[in-house]
């Protein structure tokens, strides 16, 4: 059975006819634009039990076009121009984002490369980035960055992480609760259990 494709035009027809419920086959492929339209309009998808229940038709035969033999007359010059404009705008947007990211990297503080957790080699920049992304506790920072999970178990870096957290949040370091301590665990051989 040839695959069935659901495009934005199919969803738009359903929206125009005030349908909030669309039936598609189980193995249908939905385009990204059609999926966005479905989400934006709160359309419910039901899967058909067989191909006969599906109102949209599958292509009669798979596409045989290649780059060497393009389809002539399928796209107008105006539509092609719109596509080219969209691509150019996206490329310009990506270049703009890349240039702003490089200026951000160049304007970062000089001590961002300072290693705070020597055991796990976590820098101050990594810790501040995690805090800016929403981590507000030493345990959260520990889970994300692994700062304090090395051999010393936070003996050397726990106070430094708390100081960075207090500075970033603008609070007193005494208000920050320490990380949850865990007992050291080491492997034990089965013979230790059998002789006890």
Write up what this structure looks like.
The protein is mainly alpha-helical and 196 residues long. Among the domains are: 5-53, no CATH class; 110-175, BFD-like [2Fe-2S]-binding domain (Arc Repressor Mutant, subunit A), CATH 1.10.10.1100. 42% of the residues lie in helices and 10% in strands. It is built from 7 helices and 6 strands. The chain has helices spanning 8-16, 32-40, 77-106, 124-132, 138-145, 158-169, 190-194; strands at 5-6, 21-25, 29-30, 44-48, 115-117, 122-123. The strands form 3 sheets. Strands 1-3 form a two-stranded parallel sheet. A two-stranded parallel ribbon has the order 2-4. β5 and β6 (122-123) form a beta hairpin. α4 packs across α6. The longest helix has 30 residues, at 77-106. The protein starts with a strand and ends with a helix.
Structural topology:
Elements: E1 5-6, H1 8-16, E2 21-25, E3 29-30, H2 32-40, E4 44-48, H3 77-106, E5 115-117, E6 122-123, H4 124-132, H5 138-145, H6 158-169, H7 190-194
Parallel strand pairs: 1-3, 2-4
Antiparallel strand pairs: 5-6
Helix pairs in contact: 1-2, 4-6
Structure in a nutshell:
The protein has 196 residues and is mainly α. The protein is 42% helix and 10% strand.
Kindly list the characteristics that best describe this protein.
196 residues, mainly alpha, Arc Repressor Mutant, subunit A, two-stranded parallel ribbon, 7 helices, 6 strands, 42% helix, 10% strand, elongated
